[in-house]
Amino acid sequence: MSIALRTSATGMIAQQLNIDNIANNLANVNTTGFKKSKTEFQDLLYQTIRTAGTSAAQGALVPVEIQIGYGTRVVATQRIFEQGQVTATSNQLDLAIENAGINGDGFFQILLPDGTVGFTRDGAFKLSSDGQMVTSDGFVLEPPLSISQDAVSINVASDGTVEILQQGELAATNVGQIELAKFINPAGLRSIGRNLFLETEASGPPITGTPNSQGFGRISQGFLELSNVQVVDELVNMIMAQRTYEVNARAIRTTDEMMQATNNIAG
Fold this sequence. Notes:
This protein is an alpha+beta fold. The protein contains two helices and 20 strands. It has two domains: 115 residues, no CATH class; 140 residues, no CATH class.
């Protein structure tokens, strides 16, 4: 009977982690550039009571095994990098990476205070006091772009070319180029909060390039990519996780009642 208790307990623990992941997805439904994650499960070891292929009565071979499993565990929370809805903001510093067909896996590169480079799909940029394009936390876009104080307008082309029109000038001035990065395995990136990811050995090194080429996606100025969380899908997943948790708890209660009945008979 103890096997059933432990097996059901693993199911409850796994579903608790599943609910935690769903709650995080729902909490970030309005987070710019957020990518939802899904919980993946894996069964545990099995106790083999009878092995297939062994001899039975009169020399016949047993065709199937008798195995009792020991439950489940959460093996991964995989980030889903499906494109979120792109919405217009009319802010000239808001940039979205739009996928072209099935391609468009680019990330903005952000220089962090410790000198490492983070990666994000959040293109809600601002200007610092010295005219550099920065994130909402003040982290500098990499490679850096500086906008002069007398700029009356900023234009970002789909290929990442940044031009400004200065006061009193008729021709635009090129001030730099936005570079994007992509990864062979973006699901291997590590999320560190603040809409930022870091590369890992699993993600592979970043591959940099210009927007609107080689599957990096194109830049859309005046737009932002929203979260790709679908509230209805997450609510359905929550109901399924809740019911699975309840069934596992019921299995524990049933096992406890069976053990109590056995003790009463023995007594």
